[in-house]
Design brief:
The chain has about 350 residues and is an alpha/beta fold. The protein folds into two domains: about 1-210, Glycerol-3-phosphate (1)-acyltransferase (3-Layer(aba) Sandwich), CATH 3.40.1130; about 265-340, no CATH class. The protein is built from 14 helices and eight strands. Strands 1, 2, 3, 4, 5, 6, 7 and 8 form an eight-stranded mixed sheet that branches. Strand 6 and strand 7 form a beta hairpin. The radius of gyration is 22 Å and the shape is globular. It starts with a helix and ends in an 8-residue tail after the last helix.
């Protein structure tokens, strides 16, 4: 009971904070999520830990996650992540000896699905900012079919989920989360030999993901197509529209990126929170993978800004009284919210 209250409290906090961080969050296809029963969500992975945050926060089910093991290195972080249903998955880059730990992880996954709970997995096996769906690994099929083998009466709904960012490393971001249609894994498993069943399930998930997020074929034309879309400053979160442009090889004319008329608000936010900003600039230097920029920025902001605003409000209350301090505290958050929701978001330049 306590763990459930903790989980739901964190989820509510994340929903509020993400709305202060993201310009727009588009959620579609939630009606495809069964209210009960085992579900495996298969998600593309362009933006590190921001991806599961957006997917689970706006998902009515309580979710368990498989996350790359190196995130769990520090004991305190490991305990915190574990309390929120995150589990480590080991890759060959973590060392061959570590791979044996996945057996225990898989057994936990089998148990989760047996209990008719939900599991979030990134079937591409790693994150990538490329605007396409990479070949899927068979690890997620091992979990699905392993659970079905152990539990002959179990039904597992596999739901592909596409997540698309307008710009996955800038603030404020714009994001679209699209839940796909249920894939009947039991029917695939029962009607085919296992090697064939694995390929069928991978193909079914990949096919949906290529429609649920922007997919530019990974060939010699990739950079050319991406460049045209960026120059046209298209809204990538309008996934179907952009995929139609790609399929028809028909792109809008280049346009100038809109001027940010609210830039003055950004500098006001910056001056009002100079300490958290300087902390972020220092931590940013240690980020080695671009996919983690957004994750670290969000983590620093969501922790440091509330603490800093509270401390400043206490100081103001000491000199000017609590009413002025409360007005300052509210105005600080309002300033961030207005800038986040009304400033323009641009495409990526890479």
């Amino acid at each position: 009971m306590i763990k459930k209250i903790w989980y739901q409290s964190v989820k509510a906090f994340l929903k509020i904070s993400l709305n202060f961080y993201a310009n727009k969050i588009k959620i579609s296809g939630k009606e495809n999520i069964p209210k009960k029963g085992a579900v495996l969500f298969a998600i593309n992975h362009p933006n590190a830990l921001m991806d599961p945050l957006f997917v689970t926060t706006f998902n009515p089910r309580e979710n368990h996650f498989l996350v790359r093991a190196d995130v769990f290195k520090k004991p305190l972080i490991k305990k915190a992540l574990g309390s929120l249903n995150l589990m480590p998955i080991y890759r060959i880059r973590d060392g061959r000896k570590q791979l044996s730990n996945n057996e225990e992880v898989f057994e936990k996954c089998f148990k989760i699905l047996k209990n008719k709970e939900t599991l979030i997995i990134f079937p591409q096996g790693g994150h990538s900012r490329d605007r396409n769906i990479k070949p899927l690994s068979k690890g997620f099929t091992r979990i699905v079919f392993g659970a079905l083998e152990q539990n002959p009466d179990l039904e597992i709904a596999v739901i592909p989920v596409g997540i698309t960012y307008q710009n996955s490393s800038s603030y404020p971001c714009k994001v679209a989360v699209k839940f796909g249609k249920v894939i009947d894994s039991r029917a695939i498993f029962n009607d085919n030999e296992k090697p064939k069943a694995i390929n069928i399930l991978k193909a079914a998930v990949s096919s949906q993901l290529q429609k649920l997020t922007v997919h530019i074929p990974d060939d010699e034309n990739y950079q050319h197509v991406l460049s045209k879309l960026n120059k046209a400053n298209v809204d990538f979160t309008k996934v179907a529209k952009v995929n139609k442009m790609i399929a028809e090889n028909s792109f809008p004319k280049p346009v100038k990126k809109p001027a940010n008329l609210l830039k003055v608000l950004f500098y006001m936010v910056l001056l009002n929170g100079i300490s958290p900003y300087l902390l972020w600039k220092k931590m940013k230097k240690n980020i080695q993978e671009i996919e983690f920029v957004d994750t670290m920025r969000y983590a620093v902001n969501v922790i440091s800004f509330p603490i800093f605003y509270l401390l400043q409000a206490l100081i103001i209350s000491f000199f000017f009284g609590w009413k002025i301090a409360v007005c300052y505290w509210i105005a600080s958050y309002l300033l961030i919210f207005v800038y986040t929701k009304f400033s323009p978001t641009n495409t990526e330049d890479f």
